[in-house]
Amino acid sequence: MTVLEKALGAYLGFACGDALGATVEFMSPKKIQKRYGVHREMIGGGWLGLEAGQVTDDTQMALALGQAIIDQNGWNIRAVADNFVAWLDSDPPDVGTTCRRGIVRYRDDGELYGLPREDDAGNGACMRNLPVALATLNRPDHFAAWSLEQCRITHHNPLSDAATLTLGQMAQHLINGQGIDACKQEAEQLISRYGEFAYSPYPGKASGYIVDTVQTVLHYFFSTDCFESCLVNTVNQGGDADTTGALAGMLAGAKYGVGQIPVRWLAQLDQQVAGQIRRQVAALVGLAGLL
């Protein structure tokens, strides 16, 4: 597979996981099983009442971040923050509390970062960082700096920072052809620094707390053998299923490539979003100097 096929797999896989998981967000595994059996189709609905294939804040914020990088032909943190403000002002269907607080702080006061907070350990910064990973595929120094800057617009917490860097580096390893062993090394390094991320045995929590999110994503990514099974198993865990689904889809898409994403999901995915993603992937990978 080419770098472009894996990068496309990561970004389209991310959006598919978002759209699939949104239907069962905030449900328990038992409630999902009772209502859907095994949830495996993009049917919309859920607590947000979405259309089939519609994405949530996860993909929307990633697209806002990616477009800022493309428009600036590189990095400008205020351009990123301005795009987040424009997104918030567009009346999106869902906005996380911590994301809203940080974006409003920037909009009203011009402050790009708040003070570190224990309650900033949600998954909102990690969920949107894929465009940074794509634009810095061959620049690890830029990857870390850009990632942390965009994280701290809304989430200033060491657990959020560490998770964002780890999952982004895993995606980069997969896209660059380094394989699953490199991903396991990243996971082990994360756990050696922050033991709460240990995911084996899997604790079974899938909330918006970044530790629960990462444990769920790593457990299902490492324990499944194809794109579809990774996503289906992840979102049927419920909880913050649009974000766990998106991040699992990012890793699985980077590993298996765009050709392994089920055609029915790609056909159901919001086609305007899919078109934006395809354009962004080409531009971001081009910025990385790999096209």
Number of helices: 14
Uncertain parts: none
Count of discrete domains: 1
Structural class by sheet pairing and helices: mainly alpha
Tell me about the biggest sheet? none
CATH architectural arrangement: Orthogonal Bundle
Characterization of the model:
- By secondary structure, the protein is an all-alpha fold.
- It has one domain: ADP-ribosylation/Crystallin J1 (ADP-ribosylglycohydrolase fold, Orthogonal Bundle), CATH 1.10.4080.10.
- Helix content is 63%, strand content 0%.
- The longest helix is centred in the N-terminal third of the chain and has 20 residues, at 3-22.
- It is globular and about 45 Å long.
- The chain starts with a helix and ends with a helix.
- The mean pLDDT is 96.
Any descriptors?
0% strand; ADP-ribosylglycohydrolase fold; mainly alpha; 291 residues
Q: How do the strands and helices of this protein lay out in sequence?
A:
Elements: H1 3-22, H2 29-36, H3 57-72, H4 77-89, H5 97-109, H6 130-135, H7 140-151, H8 158-175, H9 180-193, H10 210-223, H11 227-235, H12 241-256, H13 263-268, H14 271-287
Helix pairs in contact: 1-11, 1-12, 1-14, 3-4, 3-14, 4-5, 7-8, 8-9, 8-12, 10-11, 10-12, 11-12
Summarize the structure.
The chain has 291 residues and is mainly α. The chain is built from 14 helices and no strands.
